[in-house]
Write a structure and sequence with these properties.
Oligomer: single chain
Distance between the termini: 67 Å
CATH architecture of one domain: Alpha-Beta Complex
CATH class of one domain: Alpha Beta
Largest sheet: 5 strands, mixed
């Protein structure tokens, strides 16, 4: 990709859509095309049945209620913001951005939608779809992180280049990418709004995954603020648990799974020890008298 095109991508979708050199064909060398090619770069009404979904669309879930509300709005006002497509054949287009608007238009019963028609190769298609996805206001932190990771992996970008594309500094990009190193259950919790980005950043400072899960559950159980979580993590880091004597053998997959399930159930860092004869112990630590009472209630004590 040339430096000029990279510069255009860095400015976001608005620059891409107005990049006349990238949109309009070379009239001297271009073979004869159907009349509709001359519409490239402008807004045109096209039939919904002629539009196929973008295979590079990073977004896979659409909230049904929000989609229905947008559909009702489109029934009354029409589709105000055009979708963006690329022409792949005569009378056939591929969606670049605006899948939510396209779906809502179908629900509203529209047969045609306004669209920007442009040319784009697969690399540009992916970058534009990801950039448009990132620019959505209601995107959660995990969706942003996944989009960033896709741009790095599939567009062969470095973090500095990615920051230029999405108008973010490198530290912001790094903070999002580090979220993907958290255990899947914590990522899901952040995605679903049970914890905030601030909570997640504090948990990233803990190296041990089991301790991350323990603190994550404790945050939810006690409705901890970000500040309180940060203080608790700092206290843990200042006073780490000292490991003395010979370290136990690693747990088998099955025993580790049981330990993790117990930790999740009791919202504390349960330790399960088992010897080769199948004998062992279960340790359930607690942080306070109230925490002990909570555990005892769960055990019907």
């Amino acid at each position: 990709m040339s430096a000029e095109k990279r510069k255009a991508l860095g400015k976001g979708l608005s620059a891409l859509l107005n990049d006349s050199e990238n949109v309009l064909p070379n009239k001297k060398n271009a073979p004869a095309q159907p009349a509709e090619v001359n519409k490239l770069g402008s807004v045109n009404d096209i039939k919904i049945e002629q539009v196929e979904v973008n295979p590079f669309q990073p977004r896979t879930e659409f909230e049904e209620q929000a989609l229905a509300e947008l559909s009702d709005s489109i029934k009354k006002q029409g589709l105000i913001q055009p979708i963006t497509v690329r022409r792949v054949a005569a009378g056939k287009y591929q969606l670049i951005s605006g899948e939510r608007r396209l779906r809502a238009s179908k629900l509203a019963g529209l047969t045609e939608v306004p669209a920007y028609i442009r040319t784009a190769n697969d690399q540009q298609m992916l970058e534009m779809a990801l950039i448009e996805n990132i620019q959505r206001e209601n995107l959660n932190a995990i969706e942003v992180a996944l989009s960033f990771q896709r741009m790095i992996d599939e567009c062969s970008l470095k973090q500095e280049e990615l920051g230029d594309r999405v108008s973010k500094n490198r530290s912001t990009v790094t903070n999002y990418l580090r979220l993907l190193k958290l255990p899947p259950s914590i990522q899901a919790s952040l995605r679903d709004g049970e914890i905030t980005m601030g909570h997640a950043k504090a948990l990233i400072g803990i190296e041990d995954a089991a301790q991350q899960l323990f603190f994550h559950n404790y945050i939810i159980q006690h409705d901890l603020s970000v500040r309180k979580t940060e203080e608790m993590v700092r206290d843990m880091q200042r006073n780490p648990v000292k490991k003395e004597g010979k370290q136990p053998e690693p747990l088998s997959y099955q025993v580790q799974k049981v330990q993790d399930e117990l930790a999740t159930k009791f919202s504390t860092q349960v330790k399960l020890k088992m010897n080769s004869q199948g004998k062992g112990t279960i340790e359930i630590p607690f942080l306070s008298e109230d925490d002990l009472n909570r555990i005892l209630e769960m055990l019907d004590w």
